[in-house]
Amino acid sequence: MTTTTISRRSALAAALAVPALARPAFAQAAWHATRPVRVVVPFPPGGATDMLARLIATGLGEKLGQALVIENRPGANGVVATQNLLGSPPDGHSLMLATADTHTVLPAANSRLPYNVAEFVPVSGIASVVFALVARPGLPVENLQQLIELARGSATPLTYASYGVASVSHAAGEMFRRAIGAEMTHVPYQGAGPGVLAITADQVDIMMVPVAVAQPQRARLKMLGVATAQRFSLVPDVATLTEQGMPVIADAWIGLLAAPRTPMVVAETVHAAVSQVQNTPSFQDTLRTNGFSSLGYNPAVFAAFLRAEAERWGQVVRDANIRVDG
Q1: CA–CA separation, 36 vs 67, rounded Å?
Q2: What does the pLDDT look like over 169-178, one tens digit per residue?
Q3: Which residues face 184 on adjacent strands?
Q4: Which region is the signal sequence (predicted)?
Q5: How many CA atoms lie within 13 A of 191 on its CB side?
């Protein structure tokens, strides 16, 4: 059993061992939104995180009794959006749809961030992005074992793409590289789409990429495995890396955070409303078809999960010496 497997299981055990907070019936909630609620998204419109924010907003505003306003504030790998939330009153009327990229991997790689991510209040762990390992069509491999043998035996290191330095894609690539014990060269791109296009054009060898981005290009690349604990229903024919003897787990969380010092009753109330939206067949089906697996963590479980994920991904970042300054 590899360190990757042990750390992932420890992360989940730490999160799920925390007793779930009592979820008050919505009519008994001690906090109510009194004006429109902002949800800050750290990426431009049109991406997966933005889509998820708008999907939640469709029903969440009704549950909270106020309109939900999506504000896209891209920039600096989530720093712009996070600073915006940091400067907002801790009253529940400003939230952020944060990700493992912005609030787990980046903080591990950049010690000079102008905030401490641990101070933000976990509200609701909503979903995980499922990642797949893909290879360019011209690479002379047809399965994971052949890729491992090629990577270990190649005189010239293989290249692996990512959708940015200090991203989950970058850290997941390093996680895989270290797990198989081979040298590889990192090639960052400005987004998952450009990275996958480079794969399909035979410009880079492999990539750890969200399944939803790779799936439309299945005819033009080789999907060698999914980096999650169980097979994913969007691509049920693709075995997990674990099934194939390489237990690398690289799914990446997405969830709601509130400003530091936001009262717990606010987090509990918002999560209760999110749950009502999330626990519907249509929401779950939309998650799956867009490459997400469902989490549904309440504030206490989400807080423990985030601490464990910080340690899990932080170890990868430290071992690989992934660094971003400024």
Answers
A1: 5
A2: 999 999 999 9
A3: 158
A4: 1-29
A5: 12
3-state helix vs strand vs coil in the chain, percent to 5:
45, 20, 35
Give residue 269's pLDDT: 97
- Rounded Cα distance, 184 and 322, in Å: 14
- Global pTM value: 0.89
Cα separation, 313 vs 308, whole angstroms: 9
Contact (CB, 8 A) for 268 and 25: no
pLDDT at 22: 40
List of domains in the chain: 3-129+251-320 (3.40.190.150), 132-226 (3.40.190.10)
Specify whether the CB–CB gap between 121 and 21 falls below 8 A. no
- Residue 288 · residue 42 · CB < 8 Å: no
Distance CA 38, CA 53 (A): 11
What is the spatial distance between Cα 299 and Cα 268, in angstroms, rounded to a whole number? 7
pLDDT digits 0-9 by tens, 50-72 = 999 999 998 999 999 999 999 99
